[in-house]
Amino acid sequence: MVTRLILILGDQLTPSLSALTAAQAGDIVVMAEVMGEAAYTPHHPQKIVLFLAAMRKFATQLRGLGHHVAYTNLDDPENSHSIVGELIRRAAEHGADQVICTQAGDWRLRAALDACPIPVTTLPDTRFICSEVEFSAWAAGKKQLRMEYFYREMRRKTGLLMDGDQPLLERWNFDAENRKPAVPDLLRPKPPRFAPDAQTAQIIDLVRGRFNHFGALSDFGWATTREDALIALDHFITHSLPRFGAEQDAMLRGDAFLSHALISPYLNIGLLSPLEVCQSAEAEYHAQRAPIESVEGFIRQIIGWREYMRGIYLLHGPEYITSNALSAKGKLPAMYWGGPTKMACIGAAVGQTQTHAYAHHIQRLMVTGNFALLAGVAPDLVHEWYLSVYIDAVEWVCAPNTLGMSQFADGGVIASKPYISSGAYINRMSDYCKGCAYDVAAKTGANACPFNTLYWHFLHRHRERFARNARMGQMYRVWDNMAEGHRDQVLADGDKVLAKLAKGEVV
Ligand code: FAD
Ligand code: DLZ
Ligand code: SF4
User: Fold this and answer.
1) How confident is the model at residue 132 (pLDDT cuts 50, 70, 90)?
2) Average of per-residue pLDDT values in the chain
3) What is the pLDDT of residues 301-320, one digit of tens each?
4) What confidence category does residue 385 fall into, taking pLDDT thresholds of 50, 70 and 90?
5) Are strands 3-7 and 96-102 parallel, antiparallel or unpaired?
6) Are 72 and 93 in contact (CB under 8 A)?
7) From CA 241, how far away is CA 235, in angstroms rounded?
8) Which one of 169, 202, 260, 369 is CB 3.0 to 4.6 Å from 406, fit for a cystine?
9) Considering only CA atoms, which residue is closest to atom 20 of ligand 1?
10) How distant, in Å, are the alpha carbons of 47, 63, 71, 229 from that of 197?
11) SS3 of residue 160 by DSSP
């Protein structure tokens, strides 16, 4: 009988995975903790713990289902430390001459598996609502790939929040009712955190001993099994979903999680499925326990943004991660890696990233992302940072969010205009500016909020590209109507901030 290896990667922890449903008696399931994956970028230690703990527990589950699992621990002396190396080793050990795998999420691993000397049969990853082929068909011939229209297709396809072929309540989007500023609220439900069990605690010790990456391990509280991920989902749906829409964009110093779901890592490694998550949110609307604006906004993030980002990443191929449309070349300031800063907003976003490996979307987009874009940081450095520091970071979703949505490095494939703002937006949506060393109201001077000077500096230096953008013309008119002396001062102050950043000085 032919022996085949069934490869299961660290983000493929789903029993109904195509490679597992293709398994036959006598096949060997291969799972491997390897440095090639654990250190290709300086992952936050909590992220490494999550992957290794969830992998080990999934392997136990597979054995319980009757699979023969050949599992390589990180500290196995025989470990070759690459996925392909482990396939070669296991093939020799078991006399196997074929590998079955579900398509890897990243181009990097796809290329490695394409070069594997053992023949590999690749099956599609069916855990997404929109397949790769379906997305290409939707994109074909379109000049602009608008997420909103893609999302409507996904609503029709899934039937979520639909009334026949029309959207429920005759509206696709309820965002006008969402996105209120931050209000401290002691009664806001706190998401459950999961104390490490003995197996996870052992992995925490292993990771602490082997990796010296940015990020703390002391607050590890992530679910590492489907059972606990379901508890996290259920808690969100019951307690936080009703507030999700209103609080989606709010930021508060003392509250890292607000009313967010904290389920992205579980979706991305396969402990939860996007459809089950959306259906449980939809049920809350029908049971009149959550308002339409929260439920629709939440479902849009998952069947809209998440699927759309994957489609864009796959459509644009391996070169997407090298894009740099604005030719940005700056260094990533040390404050992103926990270095000192006078900017309270960056300090808060980076601080909670260090503690929890988590920041919510608006912190990523409008604080750390916004600043990197205004400061002209090289997008590959920005991408490396996001890919490393967040618990949910895998390339297919991190790259389009970072390079496309946040840094405009893809030249406008995803965003029709750059996501930039002055300090006023951050002040409106957060409590960061109160007590910051900078003055959010000051437009010039040593005390002026760096977002204020760099905002206009960015528009000025990229005038040729953006002045004719219909959504940005108004900002250029505001700039042009300022007194010339004031404009010169803003630019000179912006230059000073950029010079400090270039010299590695604290801002
Ligand atoms: P919630 O705010 O509760 O949202 C619910 C779910 O919607 C999330 O779990 C997620 O699955 C989905 N979602 C929301 N927004 C997006 C989006 N823009 N793209 C894809 N899915 C979305 N998300 C990742 O999963 N991995 C990443 O590596 C990642 N990198 C990002 C980098 C940048 C610069 C930005 C701006 C966003 C990034 N995001 C990424 C998207 C988003 O910030 C996270 O999905 C979200 O913060 C996860 O927390 P949550 O589960 O509490 O989400
Ligand atoms: C992220 C990650 C880490 C930290 N470690 C492993 C590992 O040891 N073994 C493994 O199979 N996968 C790991 N992963 C997840 C992979 O990097 C992920 O499967 C690819 O990036 C494809 O999306
Ligand atoms: Fe951030 Fe500026 Fe507000 Fe300080 S004043 S917290 S730098 S937006």
Assistant:
1) very high
2) 97
3) 999 999 999 999 999 999 99
4) very high
5) parallel
6) no
7) 9
8) 369
9) 306
10) 16, 20, 20, 15
11) coil
Q: Which ligand is nearest to the CA of 349?
A: 3
Ligand minimally distant from the alpha carbon of residue 55 = 2
Q: Does the pLDDT at position 181 exceed 90? A: no
C-alpha 404 to ligand 2 mean position (Å): 23
Residue tagged 């002391």 (tokens): 218
What are 64-95's pLDDT values in tens digits? 999 999 999 999 999 999 999 999 999 999 99
Q: Which two tokens stand for residue 132?
A: 């790769």
**Closest CA relative to residue 167, chosen from 87, 285, 265, 54:** 285
- Which atom of ligand 3 approaches the CA of 346 most closely? 1
Q: Which residue has the tokens 């855990």?
A: 127
Q: Buried b / exposed e across 196-221, counting CB within 10 Å, b at 16+?
A: beeebeebbebbeeebebbbebebbe
**In the chain, what are the helix, strand and coil shares in percent, each to the nearest 5?**
50, 5, 40
> What's the pLDDT score for residue 185?
86
Q: Residues 9, 180: contact at Cβ < 8 Å?
A: no
Residue 1 has pLDDT above 70, yes or no: no
Looking at the predicted structure, is the pLDDT value of residue 100 above 70? yes
